[in-house]
């Protein structure tokens, strides 16, 4: 039983870390963690299409489109039609968007993505296999949750008062 409680506590640490980082990002630059990730992808790959962006972030195309709409309304990115096929819409950061990305806390793609990228392949493969098994035994599953940014889900949960950074402990 202790092993189950220990694993549960580790899940809580992971989710709380994501939550704190997302809240910190939002406080520092007034965009959500997922919105910052969109801008980061456009910084490293200017001219992405919404479909390319959704693949890069492993999210639904409609979710990517909603994030793009919000950022466009705030003046952080622009859409351009160009080339021989005027149906193709490409996305670019504006100077305001570039300013946000340049002053934003890192990692721009979130602490979970950074942590997963730092794991050796054999550890990541094992983690993936074990999580697949865990999802398989869940009675209630949200099969679409894998294509939603985690930071968007937890960013509105209350952060502890006085947090200055996502890693600060009290």
Automatic annotation (TrEMBL):
Sorted UniProt keywords: DNA-binding, Transcription, Transcription regulation
GO MF annotations in UniProt: DNA binding; DNA-binding transcription factor activity
Domain HTH marR-type: 1-156
Domain of life (superkingdom): Bacteria
Gene3D superfamilies: Winged helix-like DNA-binding domain superfamily/Winged helix DNA-binding domain (1.10.10.10)
SUPFAM superfamilies per record: Winged helix' DNA-binding domain (SSF46785)
Signal peptide: none
Protein name: HTH marR-type domain-containing protein
